[in-house]
Amino acid sequence: MRLNSTTLRNRSDWSGAVPIRPEYGWKIGWNGGSRASGIQTVTGTRTTHMQASDHPYLFLAVFLVVAVIFPLVPLGLARLWARTFSPPKPGPVKNAIYECGVESKGDAWIQFKSEYYLYGIIFLIFDVEAIFLFPFAVAFTNLTIGAFLAMMMFLLLLVEGLVWAWQKGVLTWK
Amino acid sequence: MNLSLSILEFAVIGAGLAILLADLWTPVPQKRNLGYAAAAAVGLIFLASMLMQAAAPAYAFEKMYVLDGLALFFKRFFLFAAVIVLVMSVEFADRIEAGIAEYYALIMFALAGMMFAASANDFILVFVSLELITVTFYVLTSFQRGRLHSLEAGVKYLILGALASAFLVYGIALVFGVANTTNFGELMGSARVASARPVFLLGLLLVLVGLGFKIAAFPFQIWAPDVYQGSPAPTTAFLAVGSKAAGFILLLRVLFSAVPEITVNWTKLLMVIAGMTILYGNLCAIPQRNLKRLLGYSSIAHAGYMLLGVAAMNSAGSSAILYYLGAYLFTVLAAFTVICVVMRGVEGDDISAVAGLHQRSPLLAASLSLAMVSLAGIPPLAGFFGKFLLLKAVVEKGATQPGCYWLIAVAILGVVISLYYYLGVVRAIYWSKGSAELSDIKVSWPIQVSLYACIAAMFYLGLFPDRLVNIAMEAVKALKL
Amino acid sequence: MDPVFAFLALLTTAGAVAAVSLRNLVHCALCLVVAFAGLAALYLQLNAQFIGFAQILVYVGAVAILIVFAILLTRGSEPGNQPILSSSWQAGLGVAVLVLGALGVAVASSFVRYYPVSPAPQPTVRELGEQLMTNYVLPLEVIGLLLTAAMIGAVIIAMHEKQGPR
Asked: pTM for the whole thing?
C-alpha cells in the first residue's frame, strides 16, 4: 500500500534531510500502520484506493466529523434525559447561591490587561516571521552565502524590534 | 546582483534603526533632539543622492529594482521632504504623549518604502513597498492616541487603506494570472497579447483603484479630508507630499512603463477622473473652516491637476507632473510647517487661529501667504508655472483629442474657484478684525531655516523654471512615451 | 462542481457572512475562525500546502487570538442596539453585484474559453525557499522592515497610557 507515491507526485527531494515539512507529518501517519488501516476501514475496500489518494486530507475530514459527533451525541442524550426526567422549573430560591460562594457583582466582561494584547501582537509578528524562515530552512542546503546573509538581515530587523520591545518594558508583566 | 544601486534605501533604513536604538539610551529630555539627528542623517543621504548618476537605467534584484533618472528624481524628492518633515516633528514633539523617537523612526521607514516604490519595476515590489508606506502611515496618523480625532483618522485610514490594498493585490493577481509575470519589462512584451483579455484589463483597473486611493483621486478620495484633519501636522504633511508622490511615480511606471499600449486607450477614462477630481476638491474646499481639512480638499484638487499630465500621455505632461510635484513639495511643506507652529495649543485648527498672524510672526505669516498664493497658481510663484506646464501639455494633446479643451475649461474653472478659499486664508492672516491672541510666536532656528528654504525654492522655481524643467524632461525619458 | 470544493466554499462563505452579521462579538470572532479555516482547506484542496499551513499558522493561530484579545480588551462587548444592516445596504449590494457581474463577464469571455487552462505550477517548499532567497530577496527584506515597523507601531498605540515607553 504505497499511497504516498501518487500524492507526492514523485518529488525526489522529499527524502531530504529536513525533518519539518507540512506533508511530512501525514506521510508518517499514512505509512504508520494502524492509522492507515483505520482509514482503509473507513473508506471501504481497495476499490476506493484511488479516491483516498486523491484527497490526502480525507483523514482530517473524517477526524473532524468524528470530533463533532463525539461530543454532540452525549450532549444530545443528556438533554433528552433532562427533558424527560427533570423538566426545568427555575425559581428565585432554586437559582440562589447557597451553602458557599458570594453573590457576584458587576459584569463578567471586565477589561483585560493590555499586556495580553501586546504579547499577542509580538507573537503574531514572529509567527509571520516563522512563515518566511520555514522555506528558507528547507532550501538551506542549496543556498548561497548571499542568501544566508540576506536572511540574517531579515532576522536582524526583527530582532531589533524585539530588543526595542524588551527595552521598552513591553515584555515585563506588571 | 548590484547592491550598490539601492545604497540610499539601506542607508535610510540603517539610520532609522539607529534612531530606534539610540532612543533606548537617551535620557527623556534629550529624546526630541533625536529628530535633529535624524534630519541631519537624512539630509546627508540627500546630499549623497546628489552625487549619484543614472544616465542609463541600471537594474538589480532580477530586474525587480530599477535605478533610472525618474527613480533618482523621486528619491531626492522624498529625501528632501523627509528632512523638512523631521524638523517639523521636532517642533511637534511636545504634543505627542509618548514615543517621539519611534515617530521619527517610522517616518524614516515610510521614507524607505517611498524610495523603494520609486525604483519598483515589479508588481511584487510595488505591493510590498506600498504596504510599507501604508502600514507606517496607519501608525503615524493615529500617533496622538489621546486625541479622538487622531484615532478616528487612523481607523478611517486603516479601513479604507486595507480595502485599497485588497483591490491592488487582487488586480496584481489577475494581471499575473493572465500574463504569468509581474515584471514591468516582461509585461510590456506580453501586454499586446494579454490586452485582448478582459481579465487583464480588469486587473489593471483594480491596480489603478489601489493607486488612485494613494493619490486621493476621485472617486477614491473619501478618506483624505478626515485623515488630513485628524492626523498630527507632520504626518499630514508627509501624507500630502510623500505618499501622494509615491502614488504618482507608481502610476507613471505602471501606465507608461509596464503597459503603455493599453494606457493609450484609457485617455478618456483618465480625463474624466482628472476633471472630476479637480472639481470635487475645489468645490468641497470652499466651505471649510478647518485649515488642515481645507488643505486636504486642496490636495485632492492638486491630485486632479497632476492627473491632467497623466491624461495628456506625452512626455511634456509627465515632466510637468514632476515639475508640479517639485513646486507642490516646497509649497505644502511651508504651509504645514506654519500650521504646526501656529496651532500649538489650538483645538480644531480653525482658520481664525491664523488671524493677525502678521503681527505675531511676520515670517510665519509671509510663508503661509506665499504658500497659499503658490497653491492658487498666481505668478511669479512655483505653483503658477506648474499649472501652466500641465495645461500646455493638455493643449498639445488637444490636437488629437478634442475633449481636452473641455478638460482645460474645467481646470481653469477649478483654479478660479480655488482663488476664493486660498485668498480667504491670506485675508484671515492680514485683514481679519479682532483676533484674540496677539502674543509673539517664537520660531526655532531649524524651522526658520526650512521656511526660508521653502520660500526661496518657491520663488526660484517660479522665476527660473528652466533647470527643474530640464531635469524633469531628462527624468521622464525612462518612460515609454 | 467538485463536492469537496462546494462544501468548503459554502463553509467559508457561511463563516464570513456569520462573522459580519452576528450580534455577539465573540461569536463573530469564532465564525471568522471558521472562515479562515475554510480558506486554509481551500488552499490545501488546490494542492498549495505551504500557503494552506501558513494560513492556519498565522490566521487561525495568531490573528484569531489577537482578535479575541482585542474583544476582551474593549469593554463594549455587549451587543449594541443599532441594526446590523447599515441604512445604505441596497447601494452596497448594487455595487457588489456590479463588481461580481463585471468579474464574471470578464472571466467568462476571455480566459477560460480561448485558452486551455495550463496545469498550475506546484512548487515544493524547497523551490519556494530558493525563489524567496534569490529572485524575491528584496521584497523579503522590505517585508522584514514592514513587520518591524508594524510591531513598533502597534505596540506604541496599544501601550497603556501610564506605563508608556520609558
From this structure: 0.87
Residue C148 Cα, gap to closest chain B Cα (Å): 10
Gyration radius (Cα) of chain B, Å = 21
Q: How many domains does chain B have?
A: 1
Contact B129 C142 (CB under 8 A): yes
* Among C134, C50, C140, C126, CA closest to A141: C126
Q: Where are the domains of chain A?
A: 3-56, 114-167
- Residues of chain B with C-beta less than 8 angstroms from the C-beta of A163: 21, 24
* C128 and B CB contact within 8 Å: no
How many whole angstroms separate alpha carbon C79 and alpha carbon A17?
53
Q: Is residue B164 in a domain?
A: no
**Which of A149, A168, A170, A171 to probe the B interface (max B CBs under 10 A)?**
A168
The complex's ipTM works out to: 0.90
Q: How close are the terminal C-alpha atoms of chain A, in Å? A: 57
Q: Which residues in chain C touch residue A121, judged by CB atoms under 8 angstroms apart?
A: 66, 151, 154-155, 158
B459 Cβ neighbours under 8 A, 6+ residues apart: B380, B381, B382
Per domain, the residue ranges of chain C are 1-76, 123-166
Instruction: Confirm whether B342 is domain-assigned.
Output: yes
Q: Render pLDDT for A33-61 as a digit per residue (tens, 0 to 9).
A: 334 333 333 444 444 444 556 667 788 88
Is the torsion defined by CA of B119, B472, B334, B426 positive or negative? negative
Q: Identify whether B378 is part of a domain.
A: yes
- The CATH class, in words, for C1-76 is mainly alpha
Domain extent for B336: 265-481
Nearest beta carbon to residue C66 from set A112, A121, A131: A121
DSSP state of A96: S
Indicate the residue of A11, A111, A138 with minimum beta-carbon distance to C73: A111
Q: What is the pLDDT of residues B123-163, one digit of tens each?
A: 999 999 999 999 999 999 998 888 888 889 999 999 999 99
CA distance B239 to B139: 12
Count of residues in chain A: 174
C135 inside 8 A of chain A by CB: no
